[in-house]
Amino acid sequence: MKKITVNSLEYKRVEKNLTLENFTIDPIIAKKAMEVVNSGQPITPKLIRDVLNNGKI
Predict the structure, then answer these.
(1) Cα angle for residues 3, 33, 16 (degrees, 5° grid)
(2) Which of 11, 38, 42, 45 is most buried by its number of CB atoms within 10 A?
(3) Mind listing the pLDDT tens digit for each residue in 18-45?
């Protein structure tokens, strides 16, 4: 699978859709989210909580 980066088409699409809904992405949260997606692990609510709380995958 292709890695997601800040410059990737997929990230730009999500960012654009969020701005259309008047949302913004915190750069730190965006980086953590990309790390999770790029890790290849199944994304679960527990994984999301752990990353947001501890900053580790």
Answers:
(1) 80
(2) 11
(3) 999 999 888 888 888 898 889 888 989 9
